[in-house]
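ok so for the tutorial part 2 we go from a plain amino acid sequence to predicted structure tokens. step 1 is just haveing the sequence, like this:
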Amino acid sequence: MATNTIGLTLIEDSHEVEVVYVDGKYTPTKDLKKSQPWMASRWPSKRDFPSGQFRLRAYSPYLRTTWQREWKIRDGQDLSRFAKTVARELRKATTEISEEFAVASEQIRREREEWARQREKWRIEHDNKIRQEAVTKSTVALEGIISDWCRVKKIHEFFDELETAIGHSPDERKAQLHDRLHSARELTRIPDVLEILKAWKTPEEIYEEKKRRG
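step 2 — the prediction. this is what the tokens look like for a chain of 214 residues:
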């Protein structure tokens, strides 16, 4: 840090004073004892009042630095000499402030790096979770397609075997059996496995879709 910035604050101290609430304001009892002594003992309380005593506070404005100095300003003090004293001490303090600032900056840098690493770790974990969920969802859907395909094959085999059996049955029964077979075919719901396969999504497709949705 080539140059230092130092904050300055002028502070007026307060002190506790015994007061009485008179005519809409708090008046010190010591003042009432002189002008209205009969009022001085009427429900006194304690309040903070400006003392007329001042302090000059210098401080480091940089994040996570704690350097601070204070000087009391006495009544009748030579302010020119006071200012020179303060300026001299502030010049000496620049090294301490710079060192404290450097330590704080390094700490902040490390914390930011750690935070960045943690966020990257969370990102990877979340990404892996999405990928695993995509694989699971795609696999379950594919297993459903396989199950549907096996069911379709069994249905077709069932009706094919029935049709073969009807072909070997007595002629007087064939017409009735063919009607029954036709009705059974009409009643049976056969999944359109090819359409289901067309709509099926790979793990990568599911993953990309979830990524787009955030």
